[in-house]
UniProtKB/TrEMBL annotation, chain A:
This is Chromosome transmission fidelity protein 8 homolog isoform X2. One of its GO terms (biological process) is mitotic sister chromatid cohesion. It comes from Trichechus manatus latirostris. The gene is CHTF8. It holds the Pfam family Ctf8. It comes from the Eukaryota. It is found in: Nucleus. Its main location: nucleus. One of its GO terms (molecular function) is DNA binding. The keyword Membrane does not apply. GO terms for cellular component: Ctf18 RFC-like complex.
From TrEMBL, chain B:
It comes from Ceratotherium simum simum (Southern white rhinoceros). It comes from the Eukaryota. PANTHER family: SISTER CHROMATID COHESION PROTEIN DCC1, SISTER CHROMATID COHESION PROTEIN DCC1-RELATED. This is Sister chromatid cohesion protein DCC1. Keywords: DNA replication. Belongs to the DCC1 family.
């Protein structure tokens, strides 16, 4: 049988992230993939409503406090640097990197931004 | 190139959004240089119930346990959960350093632009559902090599399988506390660092030593002194085994610095019944009850309800009979358990079947719910009975 440990550094070592939930998929404009690219601007109205501008779209969403928080687990496959006094680790482990207690959900249809003809400078 | 506030404001203008209706801070979201999908297996999302979240915040670990051919479970210190992957048609982005409106409002220094890097994204997550620990294997492993006393040949032979607590955690899909609780239920004993189940006859031999001593000393069952037991019985059996027997069949307490045990009459009567019943396929009920009462220590009263989950009475046969049926010999899976019970007897009353399905009840499942799900009810002679939903061969 396999035992895979999920270890946690405790509250001091755990960051709090936010989850953003979007319908559909995000595609990179260019074939270089998503990494390194901008997604968009996230604003909040004074009432606390999230507003996301992505490309030519505006999305209105809501903040949801999660009844069941999430943990972000990062896999750690042992290499030589993992040997301690007891010897080398033989198994895969996960490290809890962050907890997510809130999510921003966008589920309404995005509104297209109709751009005007650019003003003459 | 990072976006500037001017660029953000220009976008707001094009989008015809009124900056006055927005909080001053904007998060410019971008994908980090290493951002990737969770499909690569390097990271994932685990859904937690609040109690588990607290445990992680306290620095405790969780462990996933399972064999290649088993369904994986996740264990905390004291609970076990089924682990499944839940898919969502939505895209989930994990964003470090992103603040909620409430958090922004609480900040003393107002900033107007926050460059935020998305760590990664996923369209599934690990979902947990509390489940019963899979403890049947524990008894099976410990029965491979039962303990029959220190002088037994088996103890001199190191070939026989023995398990430490760590070995058990390596083999059983359950949390450590659940395993420890079950070891106590099984009357297991830690001998030389290994967990052992006593061979039943050996366990009865120890118990008989104790009850005979109680009788000859005319002690009260609720005031059995440990030191005298060890003194008198020490020549016959190892002291640790005498004390283990007292712990299994009694409750320890201290009075004026002396250790005493209050013997549990129900457990002793139950063990005596098992000893009698295991030697025959079935017993005439009336005869059994007489022999049973005579076999227990004088002063203890036998009652059939002491035998729940151990023996079954058949009141429809003539004469009425009783036979050994141990719940821990039955299958662990719900459907398999009901199938085996219905193969044994076609129709059951709730009173008779309850002890044999009690252990299947989860956190929120009751006996009634299990019966509704796995059986069909009908009336027989004015009594409600349950039978199988499908034909049993």
């Amino acid at each position: 049988m396999v035992q895979i440990v999920i270890s946690s550094a405790g509250a001091g070592g755990l960051a709090e992230w936010v989850l953003m939930e979007l319908q559909g998929e995000i595609e990179a404009r260019y074939s270089t993939g998503l990494a390194g690219n901008l997604l968009g601007d996230l604003h909040y109205t004074t009432e606390g409503i999230p507003v996301l501008i992505v490309g030519h779209h505006i999305l209105y969403g809501k903040i949801i406090h999660l009844e069941k928080p999430f943990a972000v687990l990062v896999k750690h496959t042992p290499g030589e640097q993992d040997c301690d006094e007891l010897g080398c680790e033989t198994g895969t482990r996960y490290l809890v990197t962050a907890l997510i207690k809130n999510k921003i959900l966008f589920k309404t249809r995005p509104k297209p931004i109709i751009t005007n003809v650019p003003k003459k400078v | 190139m990072k976006r500037t506030r001017e660029e953000v404001d220009a976008t707001l203008q094009i989008a015809k959004l009124n900056a006055a209706e927005l909080l001053p801070a904007v998060h410019c979201l971008g994908f980090g240089p290493g951002a990737s999908g969770a499909g690569g297996g390097d990271f994932c999302l685990l859904e937690l119930e609040p109690a588990l979240c607290q445990q992680l915040e306290a620095g405790h670990s969780l462990v996933i346990r399972g064999d290649k051919d088993e369904q994986a479970v996740l264990c905390s210190q004291d609970k076990t959960y089924d682990l499944k992957i839940a898919d969502t048609s939505n895209m989930l982005l994990f964003i470090p350093g992103c603040k909620t409106p409430d958090q922004l409002k609480m900040e003393e220094t107002r900033c107007d632009i926050i460059h935020t890097e998305i760590f990664g994204f996923s369209n599934n997550y690990w979902e947990l559902r509390r489940c019963r620990p899979k403890l049947k294997k524990l008894k099976k492993l410990l029965m491979e090599n039962t303990y029959e006393g220190p002088d037994n040949q088996k103890e001199k032979d190191s070939n026989h399988s023995k398990y430490t607590t760590e070995d058990l955690l390596d083999q059983i899909q359950a949390s450590e506390e659940e395993i420890m609780a079950q070891l106590q239920v099984l009357n297991a004993c830690e001998i030389g660092g290994y967990w052992r189940i006593l061979e039943f006859d050996y366990e009865m031999k120890l118990l008989n030593h104790v009850t005979q001593l109680v009788d000859s000393e005319s002690w009260s069952f609720s005031r059995v002194p440990l030191s005298t037991c060890l003194q008198e019985l020490g020549p016959l059996e190892p002291e640790e085994m005498i004390e283990h027997c007292l712990k299994c069949y009694g409750k320890k307490y201290v009075e004026e610095g002396e250790v005493y045990f209050e013997l549990n009459a129900d457990k002793i009567c139950r063990a005596t019944a098992q000893m009698l019943l295991q030697n025959a396929v079935k017993f005439n009920l009336a005869e059994f009850q007489e022999v049973w009462q005579q076999s227990v220590p004088e002063g203890m009263i036998t009652r059939l309800d002491q035998l729940k989950g151990l023996a079954l009475v058949d009141r429809h046969s003539r004469p009425e009979i009783i036979f050994l049926l141990k719940v821990d010999d039955l299958p662990e899976d719900n459907q398999d358990r009901f199938n085996s019970l219905f193969s044994l007897r076609e129709k059951w009353t709730e009173e008779d079947i309850a002890p044999y399905i009690q252990d299947l009840c989860g956190e929120k499942q009751t006996i009634g719910a299990l019966l509704t799900k796995y059986s069909r009810s009908s009336m027989q002679n004015g009594v409600k009975v349950y039978n199988s939903r499908r034909p049993i061969s």
